[in-house]
Amino acid sequence: MTSAWRLLQIVAAAAALTFTGRASAATDIALWHAMSGELGRQLDKLVSNFNASQSDYRIVPSYKGNYTETVTAAIFAFRSRSQPAIVQVNEVATATMTAAKGAIYPVFSLMRDQGEPFALNDYLPAVSGYYTDAAGNLLSFPFNSSTPILYYNKTMFRDAGLDPEQPPKTWPELGAAAKRLREHGAVCGFTTSWPSWIHVENLSAFHNLQLATRANGFAGLDAELTINNPVVVKHIAQLAEWQKTKVFDYSGRGQSAEPRFQNGECGIFIGSSATRADIKANSKFEIGYGMMPYWPDVKGAPQNSIIGGATLWVLRDRPREEYKGVARFFAYLSQPGVQAAWHQNTGYLPVTRAAFELTRAQGFYERNPGSEISFEEITLHAPTANSKGVRLGSFNLIRGAIEEELEQAFAGQKSAQVALDSAVERGNKLLRQFERASPER
């Protein structure tokens, strides 16, 4: 064997060792999430961009089903010590995650411990406030947030003699517009998605009314629902009255109402801001946008809306080296350019003011009318104790109880007062069960 050949072998071996060393140096970090379809593809793109930006860590996303399935999978995995470092959890499970103190690694502690820059003040108070503790420390990382907005069919407005550039701002205005639409042939005047989220939770926040005692649950587990108050009762009673003539038409829970707006059955729709791009892509008419309506006789309204969506929670008992990578990933997600691209590509809120300003400077809002409504609505006023958010245990079950009672009111089987009294009674039983089972008790 010649000396030259031996030298080439040595060089090749050294190169292989170097390559192997670099490849093995990347620490894999599991991220379990609930995003499918286009949102899942956008998440994969976001993760790929982070992975390509550095060589020390590799985020590995895994779809685990819907939000309930994802958090359930994480809970069972934690018990078997096979949990991911990061899990996406929706806002209704915040109290459950907060109560699991031994299982979560609070984001404020993570960023401090790992020496990564993170400024809570960069985030919108109406977003970050939903996920802070009593001392104002951030517990989970704000990721995908949305809020309800109003959509309306401009073509149907013109045909009914309504001004297509003036969305209804108050509930009386919406009722009058919806009635006019019905008189001109609309199958229904308006419909809505997410009944409890929009017509109880956000209605309360937008009118600066408490949803529950103890600062909507933020101040303690012994909170009690207060949704059977005169304003909410009046609102649900009015919806039930409009239901009789299809001025309002109930279309079910979740997002089941959206197709009825897209196909032109209903001229007005109140739904999540995160569905704006989907509605635009699947509607064959010009769409107008507006904020949620409010009752003008309620002092202090409109206040600000509250969010839906999810955050990224960090779980404990992972190898120490993973947490540095998680902190680096969160620092990356905090960059204005990254936040702006996520907002523009998904329709979720820009959760930092810098991302909003960058998006505006890029001309996105001018090219996409209505896409800024959600930001304006959620930042309308500084959040109060009543409009900061909701921190109630078993809240997913409570929502189900509320919506069952609303359905009975809309069907004329119960008065609004009786339905909401029953929702309060059922919800409070669930709160007491959660309180008794909580380790904080």
Short description:
By secondary structure, this protein is an alpha/beta fold. The chain is 48% helix and 12% strand. It folds into two domains: 25-146 and 307-367, Periplasmic binding protein-like II (D-Maltodextrin-Binding Protein, domain 2, 3-Layer(aba) Sandwich), CATH 3.40.190; 148-305 and 393-437, D-Maltodextrin-Binding Protein, domain 2 (3-Layer(aba) Sandwich).
Notes on the structure:
This protein has 441 residues and is of the alpha/beta class. The chain has two domains: 25-146 and 307-367, Periplasmic binding protein-like II (D-Maltodextrin-Binding Protein, domain 2), CATH 3.40.190; 148-305 and 393-437, D-Maltodextrin-Binding Protein, domain 2 (3-Layer(aba) Sandwich). The protein contains 20 helices and nine strands. It has helices spanning 3-25, 37-53, 67-79, 94-99, 107-113, 125-128, 154-159, 171-183, 195-206, 213-216, 230-243, 258-262, 276-281, 320-333, 336-346, 353-361, 364-367, 373-378, 395-410, 416-437; strands at residues 27-33, 57-63, 86-90, 141-146, 148-153, 188-192, 266-272, 287-290, 308-314. It has a five-stranded mixed beta sheet. A four-stranded mixed beta sheet has the order 6-7-5-8. β1, α2 and β2 (57-63) form a beta-alpha-beta unit. α15 packs across α16 (353-361). The longest helix is centred in the N-terminal third of the chain and has 23 residues, at 3-25. The termini are far apart. The relative contact order is 0.16.
